[in-house]
Design goal:
By secondary structure, the protein is mainly beta. It contains 2 helices and 15 strands. It has helices at 2-25, 146-158, and strands spanning 37-45, 49-60, 63-74, 77-90, 93-103, 111-116, 121-126, 133-136, 143-144, 166-172, 175-191, 194-203, 209-214, 221-226, 229-233. The chain has a 15-stranded mixed sheet with strand order 8-7-6-5-4-3-2-1-15-14-13-12-11-10-9, with helices on one face. A hairpin with a 2-residue loop joins strand 14 (221-226) and strand 15. The protein is globular, with a radius of gyration of 18 Å.
Length: 254
């Protein structure tokens, strides 16, 4: 078992090393990337609402696809939420291309955002808030959707850019907001698979958003808190890393 564990971590370090080397030799990537992974999570909201989630990050050529599927239940009520973001590595670094949110029981909260960086406009389609909308965007001052923002935060944590608070622009539904994010310290998480060394990244304005990023596993989330809901990884972190996928002929979609 010890041999398998060391081999798994060696593969992860090799992936991160290759990513860093690629970052320094290509204008397309400015920073190392979190590795592709797929992991199970569970948790609760307000102590009563149980949550089971699956988080997956795929590397597909020059694209990243980050997906969160959550099933929640309380007594006889249940619901399924789907969140996905597709990003692309390009001349301006990592930028979001598409975000999709679906709510099985409450379709009025569904939203679909398409970022067109060439035309510098983001199209938001949703019934929430009354109507859809368009927003001007600038690749030199990127805005993020809720999923791509997490990837950006992982990258900036790996690169040491969050020692001081950093302001991110988030486009969600038809609202543009500023999120001040900073590293708050380190924490050891006790799990069924041993202790995970994490760095805590959170909003500094008192709003509910916090990530516990696993230092020894490419800074992928070991625990996530958002809107008073908290989910923790329930899978052996040595088993979550996946291989990068073949380059796509076309942009993948959510």
């Amino acid at each position: 078992m010890d041999v398998l564990l060391r081999w798994s971590r060696l593969k992860l370090r090799c992936f991160l090393l290759i990513t860093c080397l690629f970052s320094s030799s290509s204008s397309l990537v400015a920073s190392p990337l979190p590795p592709p992974f797929k992991a199970q999570f569970s948790g609760s909201k307000y102590l009563f609402f149980s949550l089971d989630s699956r988080i997956q990050l795929q590397h597909i050529g020059q694209y990243l696809k980050y997906t969160l599927i959550t099933e929640g239940s309380i007594l006889v009520y249940s619901n399924r939420l789907y969140d996905c973001s597709v990003m692309q590595l390009g001349p301006h670094g990592l930028l979001p291309l598409e975000h999709k949110h679906t709510d099985q029981k409450n379709p009025e909260y569904d939203a679909h955002t398409v970022f067109n960086w060439e035309e510098r406009v983001a199209h938001v389609k949703t019934d929430y808030g009354g109507k859809s909308g368009e927003f001007k965007i600038d690749p030199s001052k990127p805005v993020w959707d809720p999923m791509s923002l997490q990837i950006r935060i992982m990258i900036d944590t790996m690169s040491g850019k969050l020692t001081n608070p950093r302001l991110y622009q988030l486009l969600e539904y038809r609202e543009l907001s500023s999120w001040p994010i900073a590293i708050q310290g380190d924490e050891k998480l006790d799990t069924d698979y041993g202790t995970i060394d994490t760095v805590i990244v959170q909003r500094t304005d008192g709003k509910s958003f916090k990530l516990w990023l696993a230092k020894d596993f490419g800074f992928v989330p070991a625990m996530v808190e958002l809107d008073k809901a908290r989910i923790s990884m329930t899978q052996d972190p040595d088993t979550i890393t996946q291989s990068a996928e073949q380059p796509a002929e076309e942009q993948p979609h959510c």
